[in-house]
């Protein structure tokens, strides 16, 4: 039996041919010898097309088809169960790794054998980071993440409750894994020299609404990791000031101000309507700013606060009914 590879790359996919062919080309260009890492591609509820299957097999990849769509967390868990490497490497099918991606990651892990988790740099096409990092901890996005396999198994892998199969919504399973790893005492490090590129997010016209619907998963993360959720999820620190969840707060303010304006009109107090509408406009500014004040998207973005509030309400009900809610807690 051949020696186990050091790294096991696990990539979940919904079977986009173009993305997978581009990823295969990038893996072909890796400077790390193929025998040093294995490639596991998990098709989440879809079957690979013959041309893609042949290309992946030409790389020596293990192709894992799931019978039904189970979400990216479950797909990564399925791939991890087959892995033999000391470290699991989590990435995505729309990522383009630098040619020396795996070689530099392995060099860093070899230089510090005590590390349990290494996170590389995920950049947008223009060169900016995909996610702004907090002062402590990692971003935990599964595009460029290396996790010791034994520790991943010990914490239970990705929690699979952050996926709504009926509507195809998933969110926060990456943070849940990260917080569980932190709570376990994992030794973590960042490696800015280990680089992958991720396309710009949410380019579609209706993507702002899809983005808002994901917040349904927040309540589950808050219940499982209350302290880390409060201090780490969408928290911005400006000097001595801490701003928590600005978009969520802005959406709440927008909806409440509009409701107050409507109530004032219905109760015969028209003089109060303009001030409440002005407050709604102010609250809307940071939401529109997230979408770069795109006038073409304005009709959709105006619906984002309502979609976000509905998602949060649905999320509380979802969290109460989630059987695997309790462990772990901060």
Topology, element by element:
Blueprint: E1 7-13, H1 17-28, E2 37-44, H2 50-58, E3 62-66, H3 72-82, E4 87-90, E5 96-97, H4 101-111, E6 117-123, E7 145-148, H5 149-154, E8 163-164, E9 169-170, H6 173-183, E10 188-197, H7 207-213, H8 218-224, H9 226-232, E11 235-238, E12 241-244, H10 246-266, H11 273-290, H12 298-301, H13 304-321
Parallel strand pairs: 1-2, 1-4, 2-3, 6-10
Antiparallel strand pairs: 4-7, 5-10, 6-7, 8-9, 11-12
Helix pairs in contact: 7-13, 8-9, 8-13, 10-11, 10-13
Could you please describe the fold and organization of this structure?
The protein is of the alpha/beta class and 330 residues long. 43% of the residues lie in helices and 18% in strands. It contains 13 helices and 12 strands. The protein has helices spanning 17-28, 50-58, 72-82, 101-111, 149-154, 173-183, 207-213, 218-224, 226-232, 246-266, 273-290, 298-301, 304-321; strands spanning 7-13, 37-44, 62-66, 87-90, 96-97, 117-123, 145-148, 163-164, 169-170, 188-197, 235-238, 241-244. The protein has an 8-stranded mixed beta sheet, with helices on both faces. Strands 8-9 form a two-stranded antiparallel ribbon. A two-stranded antiparallel sheet has the order 11-12. The longest helix is centred in the C-terminal third of the chain and has 21 residues, at 246-266. It is elongated and about 80 Å long. 35% of the residues are buried.
What's the rounded overall pLDDT mean?
A: 93
- Work out the helix count: 13
Succession of helices and strands: EHEHEHEEHEEHEEHEHHHEEHHHH
| β-strand number | 12
- What is the first-to-last residue Cα distance? 42 Å
Q: Which blocks of ≥5 consecutive residues have pLDDT under 50?
A: none
Q: Taking Cα atoms only, what radius of gyration do you get, to the nearest Å? A: 22 Å
Work out the helicity level: 40-55%
Shape: elongated
Strand-pairing-aware structural class? alpha/beta
Bin the strand percentage: 15-25%
Q: What is the topology, as strand order, of the major beta sheet? A: 3-2-1-4-7-6-10-5
Largest sheet: 8 strands, mixed
């Amino acid at each position: 039996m051949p020696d186990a590879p050091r790294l096991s790359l696990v990539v979940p996919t919904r079977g986009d041919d173009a993305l997978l062919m581009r990823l295969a080309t990038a893996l072909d260009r890796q400077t790390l010898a193929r025998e040093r890492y294995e490639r596991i591609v998990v098709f989440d509820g879809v079957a690979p097309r013959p041309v893609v299957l042949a290309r992946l097999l030409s790389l020596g990849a293990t192709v894992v088809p799931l019978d039904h769509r189970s979400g990216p967390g479950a797909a990564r868990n399925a791939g991890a169960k087959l892995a033999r490497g000391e470290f699991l490497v989590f990435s995505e099918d729309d990522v383009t790794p630098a040619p020396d991606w795996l070689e530099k990651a392995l060099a860093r892990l070899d230089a510090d054998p005590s590390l349990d988790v290494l996170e590389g740099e995920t950049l947008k096409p223009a060169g900016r980071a995909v996610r702004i990092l907090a002062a402590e901890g990692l971003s935990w996005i599964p595009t460029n993440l290396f996790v010791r396999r034994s520790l991943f198994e010990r914490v239970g892998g990705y929690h699979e409750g952050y996926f709504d199969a009926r509507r195809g919504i998933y969110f926060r399973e990456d943070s849940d894994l990260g917080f569980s790893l932190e709570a376990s005492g994992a030794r973590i490090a960042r490696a800015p020299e280990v680089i992958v590129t991720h396309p710009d997010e949410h380019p579609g016209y209706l993507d702002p609404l899809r983005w808002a619907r994901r917040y349904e998963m927040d309540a589950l993360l808050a219940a499982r990791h209350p302290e880390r959720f409060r201090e780490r999820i969408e928290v911005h620190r400006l000097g001595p000031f801490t701003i928590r969840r600005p978009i969520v707060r802005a959406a709440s303010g927008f909806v409440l101000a509009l409701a107050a304006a409507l109530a004032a009109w219905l109760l015969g107090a028209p003089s109060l309507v303009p001030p409440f509408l002005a407050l709604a406009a102010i609250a809307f500014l940071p939401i529109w700013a997230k979408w770069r004040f795109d006038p073409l998207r304005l009709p959709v973005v105006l619906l984002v606060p309502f979609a976000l509030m509905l998602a949060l309400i649905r999320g509380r009900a979802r969290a109460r009914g989630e059987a695997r809610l309790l462990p772990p807690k901060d």
